Amino acid sequence: MPQRCQRKLIKRGAEADIFVISWFGEKAISKIRKPKPYRNALLDSDIRKKRTIHEANMLSATKLAGVTTPFIYFVDPKDAEIVMEWVEGDNVKDLIDSELSAEIGRYAARMHSRNIIHGDLTTSNFIFNKKDHKLTVIDFGLSYYSERFEDKAVDVRLIKEIFVSAYANDYEGLYSSFLLGYRDISGDGHMTARILSTVQAIEKRGRYARMT
Ligand SMILES: Nc1ncnc2c1ncn2[C@@H]1O[C@H](COP(=O)(O)OP(=O)(O)O)[C@@H](O)[C@H]1O
Ligand SMILES: [Mg+2]
User: Fold this and answer.
1) If you measure from the C-alpha of residue 142 to the centroid of ligand 2, how many angstroms do you get, rounded to a whole number?
2) Catalytic residues
3) I want to staple 23 with a disulfide (CB 3.0 to 4.6 A). Which of 28, 71, 178, 188 is the partner?
């Protein structure tokens, strides 16, 4: 691909590298899963191929659930590459407030209503564009399908933990806004109650584990 010549590395991750590229004249993102030298080469290429296809599918499925995700332009399973829309905006970890937190809650509930577990629901995986007031969720590398409320609770638990650890001054406000947004979509029924009570159960287990 000729575009590769002009690519610029913006993040070197454990699993994948992220490049800004030009895609038929448009600014785009290329996410490439890296080979793991300690894995058997054939197995490694198979794993990267499957994870690439899986991530692209989950991005699309989430868009169908009414949640803003980057558009996918191109998927190359052989080279473990996804080319997607470059989302303009700021990382939400630097500008989280109650309004954005409520929107994250709505996004999480929409994903969960389709049994999509994001798997890495942190403020770093959201981009907010101030100009058009649009929130986009990225990074479906750890996402999976599950209808178990325990798995949905793990998503909620993670974002709560991020609020507690990174925004200690206002974690209660941020978490209650998140819950307001979540309930906006998922309602106050049995399923929501079970998910949220499981969040508390996971927290208790964590506390006991630390005490022993
Ligand atoms: N579609 C995108 N548009 C703009 N920036 C992106 C996009 N995808 C990823 N990024 C940037 O690259 C970073 C890492 O991407 P991510 O998919 O979260 O990979 P990782 O698995 O390494 O966390 C993001 O935090 C964001 O800054
Ligand atoms: Mg990420």
Assistant:
1) 10
2) 120
3) 28
Question: Above 60 in pLDDT, residue 84?
Answer: yes
Beta carbons of 90 and 96 less than 8 angstroms apart: no
The per-residue pLDDT for 206 is 77
* List of domains in the chain: 2-85 (3.30.200.20), 90-211 (1.10.510.10)
Q: Which atom of ligand 1 is nearest to the CA of 120?
A: 23
Q: Residues with Cβ within 6 A of ligand 1?
A: 10-11, 13, 15-16, 18, 29, 31, 70, 84-87, 91, 124-125, 127, 138-139, 141
Among 139, 140, 142, 162, which is best to mutate for testing ligand 1, by the most ligand atoms less than 8 A from CB?
A: 139
Residue 5 has what pLDDT?
63
Taking the centre of ligand 2 as the mean of its atom positions, its distance from the CA of residue 190, in whole angstroms, is 31
- Residue 69 has φ and ψ, to the nearest 5°, of -130, 165
pLDDT in tens, 154-187: 999 999 999 999 998 899 999 999 999 999 999 9
Give the pairing type, strands 116-117 and 81-85: unpaired
Both tokens of residue 97? 């407030």
- How close is the Cα of 19 to the center of ligand 1, in Å? 9
| Buried-exposed string 191-208: b where 16+ CB fall within 10 A, e elsewhere | ebeebbebbeebeeeeee
Q: Which residue has the tokens 């986009």?
A: 136
Tell me the HSE value of 85 on the side-chain side, using a 13 A CA sphere: 14
